[in-house]
Sequence to fold (157 residues):
Amino acid sequence: MTADSGDELALLPRLAQLGTAMNRGRLAQQATEATGLALDRPAMTILLTLAMAGSPLRVGEIADRMQVVGPHVTRQVQALEHRGLVRRVTDPNDRRASLIEPTDTGAEAANRYTSTVADWFRTAIANWSPEDRTELNRLLTKLTDDLTTSLTQDDTH
Fold:
């Protein structure tokens, strides 16, 4: 442990608290209810992953982005497909493979979810200065990118 490691250790409870607020608290429940669909967290995460991707993804790509194993995603995708929330499309680069994309209904559900979260977040930082908002965005982007890179490197070693 380095001399300045206390700074990082002091962040851990805050990061855990933020994660809980975002994923397990009333926010996630309210956002899921806003979709108008009875979806569990993994199904909603797949819809959000697909909606944010901006283009269809392979099951393996969804799993990588969610940092879970492929079979888990395959089962969830099949259930979402059965409900008409996602569909398979042919991969233009490999006609033997299929990609997954949200249907209009799935995309609308993801949009309602993200709108609810964005409204909550907007309210939480409503009194912040524009500079503080910009700094928060910069630092969260940097932290997310660095953590994702580190996790990816750990997975390949």
